[in-house]
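Support reply, case 0932

Customer input (verbatim):
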Amino acid sequence: MPSEVLEPYPAERSQPPAPVATVVIVNWNGAHLLPACLDALLAQRTSRPFQVVVVDNASSDGSLTLLQTRYPAVRVVRNAENRGFAGGNNSALEHVTTPYAVLLNNDATPEPEWLERLLVPFDEPGAERLAAVSSKVVFAPRFLPLELSTEGFSPGPHDPRELGLRVLGLTVDGEDVTEKVLWERLVFGPEGEGAARFRWTRPAGELLVPLPAGARGPYRVVVRWAAERAKDVRLSWQGGEAVLPVTEAVTEHSFEVAGTTPVVDVVNNAGSIVFHAGYGADRGFQEVDTGQYDQPREVFALCGCAVAFRTEAGRELGWFDDDFFLYYEDTDLSWRLRLAGWSIRYEPTAVVRHIHSASSVEWSPRFVFHTDRNRLLMLVKNATAARAVREVGRYPLTTASIAVRAARQGWRDRRRPAVRQTLMRLKVLLSFLRLLPAMLAKRAELSRTAAVPRTTVEQWLVTSREEAP
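Our regenerated output:
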């Protein structure tokens, strides 16, 4: 459907110099996010004139009113429907005439010199084939690192995990931060729904607890948890520790952390990587920022959260693939850029703070559907035939294996088997098959125009995060 362009109100100032960059922000019901993003963007300290375009994907929360009243100098592109990240950005990118097109998430807040530093690499000698510069993205809050340890146990012959306890909730100074805690090094995936939702921990590991905005300490931390039996849990941090009881029943305990306790920044993305199976990942994800990613370097893929493009390169490749809608569209574009002979760089001095999963919930059905399907679509378009066939073929086989395991577990437990995961994967396969002819046609076009062999591009793929450059 066509987009409606809402021109900005005339500004009462002299004619500014012609912009060299267009910053595009896609918004969907993000009225609560836009002020912090736009205020920081419009306060940039840069010698490079730029213009701002907000693409609104049919918001119903007053975003358009906010833009027209508080940010009249911002150009607005209004879509009649939600076109996702891919189509939303394309609504503006297709019309960009400045030398550079810059993307910024509406849930990201750039540091004052972000834009200036993001564009500098394009001016360096030998950068003629530099297509994109990706920012250093850190999580928005600062974090309190906690170490947890308790006695572990094995749940049974059909579950190989070593478990510690079930965590149901965590608050800091009265604010529920359960879904914002960085759990990756401590817990397994969430289970259950609503108030019964919980995470099994490992016997020991680190969790990174986000601190509420403006919190100065001391911090009052409250945990809700339960275990397979009564035992103690040790929580420690620099300069202190708490030993708390846990039982089979859900209980709540609190402890205090001094305001002088060191807190840290945590990396969200320092450029992106792709594993051999086609799974994309953030380089440095959930690592405490100690300066280990402070060197600029070439990376395989960009992060669409905060990135600058050479407009010529984006236009040559047709920008994002609308069929992806959400997720993997930036990795797909990166792969296509590399096939066309362009390079991508990570610039650590261009920093944004990002509210992770502010617009879509990680591991929600929507997230799982688009990441699963789009990984397969990306492989069909871009990977060597052997890799694409192998990984696409593995998906239905894995789906069948999951269905059989669920049926056996249901039989053992004398209950209806869990079918949600199988049904989701079947939905992915049906959507993938519907789009397969279009992806094969796009693959043929890429093969015709590619400047770099697919086998050469795949040398960037990695087996583990540790292997990533």
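We compared this against your earlier run and they match. Two observations from our side: The chain has a mean pLDDT of 93. The radius of gyration is 24 Å. Please reopen the case if you see a mismatch on your end.
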